[in-house]
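Quick start: what a row looks like.
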Amino acid sequence: MIKWTIHNNEKQQLTNLKTRKYLFIVSMLIAINFISCKNDPPMTIDYNGKEILAIHSDSILLNDGLSILLNSDSLSKVFYLVRHAEKDTLIKDNPPLTEAGLLRATKLADILKGTRVDAIYTTMTLRTMYTADSIADIKAMNLIPYDNKSLKDVINNVKSNDELNRILMVGHQNTIPAITNTLAEKEVFNSIFADDDYGNFVIVFLYKSGTTEVYKLRY
């Protein structure tokens, strides 16, 4: 009986020793993996072309579950830039929106209704004003007209206005790329949008540090 007890204790000690060795090896592997991950460069995500679902407060929600955070402490201004929605191509002189265009205007309003908008700029055309009309109604805001010929002056005035921090600008297939390039101070777009491309949703971050960041999304 005594011999059996001693033998059993030895087996238990051997089991404990193996367990400690196993835990030690596992701990070492975890530590090595942690150190290796710390030395890896941070993973960058390419957001270009992703579809925007909504902007809730300071979070831009995308259709694949990702989100882009608007850090108010480091941001100076945020520009939301969209081309007017689908226009009636059968009408040559100042065309209004088609049914598809009106639906896109409603979609734009749904995206922006849950976040701050300080100003809404549009050109004096039916297609741009109708595109911004729904969000303007929701926010109880007036549309501010701007002229394509004085884009740089408009942008400089907005940038110098401390009360305007979240700005929506609705423009055209040639002006939205131009506005983006001007804000980013580099060539983000090297061509205008295609005639039938109405789904660009460009967001430009201007940081207090003087740097910029551009997201070329879709909606």
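That is the whole record. The radius of gyration is 28 Å. Residues 1-6 have pLDDT under 50 and may be disordered.
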